[in-house]
Amino acid sequence: MTYRRWYGYLFLLPYLALFGLFLIVPLVYGLGLSLFRWEILSRVPPAFVGLGNFHEALTSDNFWKALWASARFVLMATPLTVGLALLIAVGLHSVGPKRQALYRAAYFIPTMVTISVAGILWRWFFNSEFGVFNALLNALGLPKAPWLTDTGWAMPSIVIMTLWWTVGGPMVVLLAGLQNIAPHYLEAASLDGATPWQRYRYVALPLLRPVLFFVIVMNVIGAFQVFGQTFMITRGGPELSTRSLVQYIYETAFNNYRMGFAASMSWLLFLVIVVISGVQARLMREK
Amino acid sequence: MNHGRRNIARLLAEIGVAVGAAIFLLPLVFLALTAFKPDREILHYTGIAPAHPTLANFREVLGNPEEIPIARWFANSVLISSCVALLVVTVDSLAAYGLARLNLPGKRWVFGLIVATLMVPGQILLVPVYLILNRLGWLDTPLALIVPAGAGAFGVFLLHQFFLGIPRELEEAAMLDGCSPLGIFWRVVLPLSKPALATLAIFTFVGSWNDFLGPLVFLDSVDKYTLPVGIALFQTSYFAEYGLTLAASVLCTAPVLIVFLIFQRHIIQGVALTGLKD
């Protein structure tokens, strides 16, 4: 009998093998790695340094600068992305089903474009000399803007591109959430004389809160890992103002081959994400 | 009165939504049209449409397989993405069936662990997975991108929820007829789950097709590249030749958009499901 009960695990075996080898083992291995000084190309064998890598990261300007670049990105991109996604979802919610599918596809299509193509495209739009945006500004008689060449402009430019590239995902989730709300709630509000604004603000939005919360948390987790956009469009410049922490980790591991130090910064970023997700969950429950 | 106001609000909302949708499509229209422009028109912007449309950019991109092995990259991408989709659907459906339907000791605990990893940010796995692949000797081979992709928890979660919704009576009837669990899985559960399996397969395929960080880190030789990394190479090698770069970008994007337009419903359903965990 015991044999028959355990026999079912054969169904799980292929997946659990992959899950173990490429998810659980790397998680633990990465934590172990972060305690070693290990330059993969040098002949010096890995040496245990305890929390040395973490100490080095926390006292290095490069680490804080990269973490701040990622945090700035999150602070700008997440509210704008989720806000715009909600706005589009509410707008789409009031449109008839056929045209709704059409518009929804238009907003979603950019998320299907791979980051290297999206990056090349927007790098060209933003180009100071022959970019499309400055050509349009010029046609309107306005001065050229330093989209990617000024430390104050570069990150907001990346955020604009990110809105275009990523708003489709959260929009689809929020729209599905709105469609999951039983129609009679909204109808009842209408019969009581609520305006469309009031229906959304006081009826739909509170019912949407769990979905909205999920979307915000997932967006923060994703935004903290920003890499492709900055890597393709600015390479982290100007003056490293857009070099995100994931780009710094990438460069540490695969340009400078410092595996232990890179692993320790990965874990620090993970901790930041865990703490922030925890705080968000707490805030959500208190409200 | 109230009715009229609501209609106006509805109309305004739709106008806003339509204008926004057009703005979102505009960058891709720019991409498609500019790829047909000669270089001097790209460098001196005169308008969105090409004044002297030309196929020269495409001819040059496709005509240099030595320098720009774009057909090779395309084949690599097709191979890798198809294998990933097949692997994920196979191992995830088996695992999800076991977790949803079989009476396994400790399965709640196992399922909880799998779902918890949905929150683990991928970047933390990059360095250790690289080192594991290095030890396996899989770096710079398609295996480096195919096999680790099977570890993701999303598909197990998605199919688990779907299988729970299949009426048990069907399986019980099959069991009374002497069907083994594997037989029930193969003859009863899988045929009923075609929509969910298709959603997962397409979703996984597109995700793998568009993956950038993975091939950037795990592949080394230019002829092993996938399309996204190959295209990124343009930015450094053909920096000034925007025409070539944009033509290559069109060739990279068109297949995904065709897949999207055909399977739109499945793809969007897949995204929506990630947010509605009931």
Structure, described:
The complex is a heterodimer of chains A (287) and B (278). By secondary structure, chain A is mainly α. Chain A has a single domain (60-283), classed as MetI-like fold, CATH 1.10.3720.10. Chain A is built from 14 helices and 2 strands; from the N terminus they run ααββαααααααααααα. Chain A has a two-stranded antiparallel sheet with strand order 1-2. Chain A is globular and about 75 Å long. Chain A starts with a helix and ends with a helix. The relative contact order of chain A is 0.14. The model of chain A has no long low-confidence stretch (mean pLDDT 91). In chain B, helix 3 (56-62) crosses helix 14 (242-275) and helix 11 packs antiparallel against helix 14 (242-275). In chain B, 73% of the residues lie in helices and 0% in strands. At the A-B interface, helix 2, helix 4, helix 5, helix 6 and helix 9 of A face helix 1, helix 4, helix 6, helix 11 and helix 13 of B.
Task: Kindly summarize this structure in a few lines.
The complex is a heterodimer of chains A (287) and B (278). Chain A contains 14 helices and 2 strands.
Produce the secondary structure layout.
The complex is a heterodimer of chains A (287) and B (278).
Chain A: H1 2-7, H2 9-33, E1 36-37, E2 47-48, H3 52-58, H4 61-93, H5 97-108, H6 115-126, H7 132-139, H8 151-166, H9 168-180, H10 183-191, H11 196-224, H12 228-233, H13 245-254, H14 259-286
Antiparallel strand pairs in A: 1-2
Helix pairs in contact in A: 3-14, 4-8, 4-9, 4-11, 4-13, 9-11, 10-11, 11-14, 13-14
Chain B: H1 2-34, H2 39-43, H3 56-62, H4 70-101, H5 107-116, H6 126-136, H7 143-146, H8 154-164, H9 168-176, H10 181-192, H11 194-210, H12 213-218, H13 227-237, H14 242-275
Helix pairs in contact in B: 3-14, 4-8, 4-11, 9-10, 11-14, 13-14
